[in-house]
Amino acid sequence: MARQRNLAASLGAWSARHPKTALFGWLFAVIALTVLGGMAGQKSLTEADYGTGESGRAAWLLVDAGITTPAPEMVLVHSGEHTAADPEFKKAVADAIAAVDGTGLAQNIGDPYKTGAVSEDRHDALIQFAVKGDPDTAADRIQPVIDALAETEDAHPGVTLGQYGAASGLKGINDSLGEDFTRAEFTAVPVALGILLVVFGALVAALLPLILAITACVAAMGLLALSSQLVPVDAMTNSVLLLMGLAVGVDYCLFYIRREREERAAGRDKESALRIAAATSGRSVLISGLTVAVAMSGMFLSGLTVFEGFAIATIEVVLIAVLGSMTVLPAVMAMLGDRIDAGRIPGLRRRAAVRTADQKPGRLLGAVLRTPALFAVLGIAFLLALAAPALSMKTEKLGFDQLLPADNVTAQTAQRIEAVFPGAPAPAQIVFKTDDITSAEATGALDGFKERALASGHVKNPVEVTVHADENIAVISAPLAGDGRNAASERALEELRGDIIPATLGKDADNQALVGGDLAFSTDYNDQLKSSIVPVFAFVMGVSFLLMLLCFRSPVIALTSIVLNLLSVVAAYGVMTAVFQKGWGDELVGTTAVGAVESWMPLFVFVVLFGLSMDYHVFVVSRIREAYDQGVDNRAAVAHGVRATAGVVTSAGLIMVAVFAVFGTLSMQDFKQLGVGLAVAVFLDATLVRAVLLPSVMALLGRSNWWLPSWLRWLPELSHGEEQPQQATPPAQQRTASPEQPLASR
Fold first, then answer.
1. For residues 435-457, average pLDDT
2. pTM
3. b/e per residue 566-598 (b: at least 16 CB within 10 A)
4. Mean of pLDDT values over 585-612
């Protein structure tokens, strides 16, 4: 069967022949996308866009009716020395109310002495109000209230005023996101540059991958702004894009440059070295990038808009990085020639090693190949031991106070409110729609709901009802028993949905009574994620299997790649559970365990890691197959492929781990979980899996690695090396074709 034309080699050859066209075309595309994206502006998700299930329908019922629920805010007045009966305390409460009212931004301000929002020990009082205007922009307008309360607090020694709510909480999140994004930019880039300097020992060679990765991120952000007009994105999406763009962008260039330098060290001229790098590493980059993009597309099956934004952002930056490494990179390398090694760093300059199939493996690889069964068992056992804590993983949609650092004033205020006024920060919100909200039947249903809810003990005072007569909708605020998210609150929500509402508001089948609010949102969000786990996992693994089958024409290779990648993922799950749920070593990453893993983290980490793990797998196995196709027997081909790629895989893995670890040092809890999970998994994948498990498993399988059933021999045969190998394989390592050998190997 004739081999298929190598697209990567064709693109690389064209770029090398037309370097100025490729380079200026890339720069024009980056500038154009940036300008167009800036003109369009990035469109963010609204509160209703995040919803799913019953709580999501409740939010959209209000949106469709044109009803905006003002962003709720609370001011906690606390004093350790004064009580609510003391004049000093009363004066502080009155001044705080006046300060909030004086900003002109507040409405429905509640006096705690009239609403009964005073704690049992009389040392706390809660002022509740709502922010005027669009709730989706309240976070951008709340600063004058924060400033006014700060001035009031200064005027009352012995009394503290803490603010928390939908607007101030989101502002805290946005401020932390902005600071974290800036810190990630200014930390991850220098760290990656430092590693590249060590890897290449030359300034130009180190800067080239970094510049291409950064420009790929810039272009992708412009493209994301354009695509967000159709699919709005979460505020965290830019950080995810930067994380993925730096990681894969640098890695893809690293694969390419290292192979070109290796061929140059073997004595080939620069044109031949670049051609071979394009045909081998360039092809691996193309397959890896497509695999990552396909894996990311699995997030579209989650049924959640926030994941659609994550998917689009990562697919865009990965494909742009692939395009850059296959076009502008060979163009620049052709223009630079040997000047790519300019700016040599004393003491760091290393000549690329020339690897041949007849060389003996190193100590570790030699031991693995001598006793593959032992190392396979030990490696799998170690990864399963790391994964064990994941058996008790608890996922939860983390609240503002959990996402923010423990020493954040807003987070501390939220925790104090939850402790003193259970249910107050996050009451259930019932949206009740009927034919005539002012009718006696509707009024009776509302009264009956309030009476039954309070009598059940699952709902606490104050239960507030806001009637929108023109829309025939009533919005009920009902504080739940418990702290708003513990087991007591979950039971209260279950009773509310399963018993109280059907017996009161839901008696008439024509009525709609939908429960929203923070706990309902979190519950529905988790339920949607759990229901989407199986289809997302099945899609990602199924498509990855097909891509590996098409690439290597071996169902055995495809299956082992799935299993090995799964081991990395479950190990990451175990570490995340141990650190962020159980608190084992949480101080090492500068956090306090919140008792749960962010609900969207397992699915997102699985998709990302499965895609990224394929980078190394494709790169290593392609090198093994390249040697095998040249006549080297299986075990020697495994040894050669692993040894020849060990340096670049280790370097690429180190860069990815460093970039992800930077995110693990940021202040936001979800960034920490994402950074730690990805860093651990990539480290294990680039070391234990690729250096121990992959060679041991492939050695055990022997020639079965390349088995292809007769009914699949129609698959196209893709080249894994250069068109005409210029270096003969030593006779001692050659194998003789036999009838038992698979068709692809002959």
1. 90
2. 0.81
3. bbbbbbbbbbbbbbbbeeeebeebebebbebbb
4. 86
